[in-house]
Design brief:
- The chain is mainly beta.
- Helices cover 8% and strands 41% of the residues.
- The protein is built from one helix and five strands.
- The longest helix is centred in the first third of the chain and has 8 residues.
- It is globular and about 40 Å long.
């Protein structure tokens, strides 16, 4: 099943990009289901950067989510594929090739 969801954000693209390119800082915060987040390789986010995220679905039930940056325009565009044993999805607007 495919679906598309768009949300308009009232911030400059550079601010949104900075937030999404630094997701590892959200790991294990108060009330967060994120148990751990590892950026591979550490450092600047670029095409090919991956994250290994372990989330708590229920007490005692973790799930690992792998993410990889597949397209990036600094301060403007970040497209990330996410996958786990349960799902696959993409964050960002993929380029359309015809």
């Amino acid at each position: 099943m495919d679906f598309d969801l768009s949300v308009e954000i009232g911030c400059p693209p550079a601010e949104v990009f900075a937030l999404l390119a630094d997701v590892e800082r959200f790991a294990a915060g108060p009330g967060s289901p994120v148990v751990s987040m590892e950026k591979i390789p550490p450092g600047r986010t670029e095409v090919g950067t991956r994250w290994r995220e372990v989330v708590r679905l229920l007490p005692g039930l973790p799930m690992t989510v792998w993410s990889v940056v597949i397209d990036l325009t600094p301060d403007a565009r970040l497209v990330v594929d996410f996958s786990s044993v349960a799902f696959w999805y993409q964050l960002g607007q993929p380029k359309r090739y015809t």
